[in-house]
Design brief:
The chain is of the alpha/beta class. It has a single domain (3-200), classed as DHBP synthase (Alpha-Beta Complex). Helix content is 27%, strand content 23%. The protein has six helices and ten strands; from the N terminus they run E-H-E-E-H-E-H-H-E-E-H-E-H-E-E-E. The protein has a ten-stranded mixed β-sheet, sandwiched between helices. Helix 1 (14-25) packs across helix 5. The chain is globular, with a radius of gyration of 16 Å. The chain starts with a strand and ends in a 12-residue tail after the last strand.
Length: 208
């Protein structure tokens, strides 16, 4: 059964956050809160952890994951960011948005869209998530906590423990953090394209 940490949503306990980061570094899979619901998280370099997520969620090989970053400077390491894209992201981060950009060589091929060579990236506005990222010192691979047969993501930490407690290594209980998905914006071209409307206000990315 997974470890279960109750972490304060406003003042995350440094000792617990450090333990979460340690589990991730060792190749573990964690459940953690974001500003758009709970998500699975694992280290970018651990393919076995990624395979576990595909098994838990019964995902196709073509399914895209998201790289969760601390800030825009970290995003620029993993994606090709033009001036227009940078300006738009600066006004929307941290926040409930996922940005699709061309991946750099820092991103393993297995994490990129196989045809377009893109990657989804985001900077969450959640203190627990940001504390974990700070302690980890690198981005966190992430996937929504939607289980096979469910239409909506899980939002209650106790239910999450009941449903996936035997399949993950650690669950971070940060209280209720919403259930709306991120707004997805494709920033590859000269004009941004809103691919999915979610919790984030899409208007800054839409042409008047």
């Amino acid at each position: 059964m997974a470890q279960y940490f109750e972490v304060h949503p406003e003042n995350p306990q440094a000792r617990l956050v450090s333990q979460v980061a340690s589990v991730v570094r060792s190749g573990g899979v964690v459940v953690y809160p974001t500003d758009s619901g709970y998500a699975f998280g694992w280290a970018i370099g651990h393919k076995t952890a990624q395979d576990r997520i595909r098994l838990i969620r019964r995902l196709e090989d073509s399914h895209d994951f998201t790289l969760v970053c601390r800030d825009l400077s970290e995003i620029a390491t993993y994606a090709k960011v033009g001036n227009t894209a940078y300006r738009l992201m600066r006004g929307a981060t941290p926040g409930p948005y996922t940005f699709i950009l061309k991946a750099t060589h820092e991103v393993p091929r297995r994490l990129q869209d196989p045809k377009r060579r893109t990657i989804g990236l985001r900077v969450p506005d959640n203190r627990i998530a940001r504390a974990i990222l700070d302690a980890l010192g690198e981005p966190l691979m992430s996937s929504s906590l939607v289980l096979p047969g469910d239409e909506m993501p899980l939002t209650d930490p106790e239910e999450i423990r009941d449903r996936v407690g035997k399949q993950v290594d650690l669950i971070v209980d940060g209280g209720f953090c919403g259930y709306e998905p991120t707004t997805v914006v494709d920033l590859q071209g000269d004009v941004p394209e809103v691919v999915r409307r979610g919790r984030g206000d899409p208007s800054p990315f839409e042409t008047p």
